[in-house]
Write a structure and sequence with these properties.
single chain, LS/RS, 6,7-dimethyl-8-ribityllumazine synthase, LS/RS_sf, Rossmann fold, four-stranded parallel beta sheet
């Protein structure tokens, strides 16, 4: 018996609001690329959290609802002088990986941390464009992993 695989997928995009102008570039480019590859904008739900550290727990809570096929995490973590930004980014990524493995739901990361960032026009423009690229890449990767998982599920049945 031939199994059909639904192409309707729900994607949660969790975005941190620190440096929202930069993070929003990834979210918008994800949505643009998602539709460019033939998917529906209505597949995407955008959820805001204050900062990057809140993303893993929120991802876990959203996945527990059973409403999402994948989660995309978006944040821009910079050195604020209080603690090392690489520690925060590493903690977030470790948490996301744990949630992904514990739940079996794909989580894609657009949680990026630069070695050097200053709130100058040049740096802001550079990272806004970089997040556009990363949003597009995340959309393509999300579609690919969902298709791979769908094929896996069909072959198991």
């Amino acid at each position: 018996m031939l199994q059909t695989v639904s192409t309707q997928k729900r994607i949660a995009i969790i975005r941190a609001r620190w440096h929202a102008n930069i993070v929003d570039e990834a979210v918008q480019s994800f949505a643009d690329e998602w539709t460019a590859i033939g998917r529906s904008r209505s597949d995407i739900e955008i959820i805001d959290v204050p900062g990057a550290l809140e993303i893993p727990l929120h991802a876990q809570s959203l996945i527990a609802t059973g409403s999402y096929d994948a989660v995309v995490a978006c944040a821009f973590v910079v050195d604020g002088g209080i603690y090392r930004h690489d520690f925060v980014a590493g903690t977030v990524l470790d948490g996301l990986m744990r949630v992904q493995l514990d739940t079996g739901t794909p989580i894609l990361s657009v949680v990026l941390t630069p070695h050097h960032f200053q709130e100058t026009e040049v740096h802001v423009r550079f990272f806004e464009q970089h997040f556009v690229t990363k949003g597009k890449e995340a959309a393509a990767a999300c579609a690919a992993i969902l298709e791979a998982r769908a094929r896996l599920m069909v072959s198991v049945m």
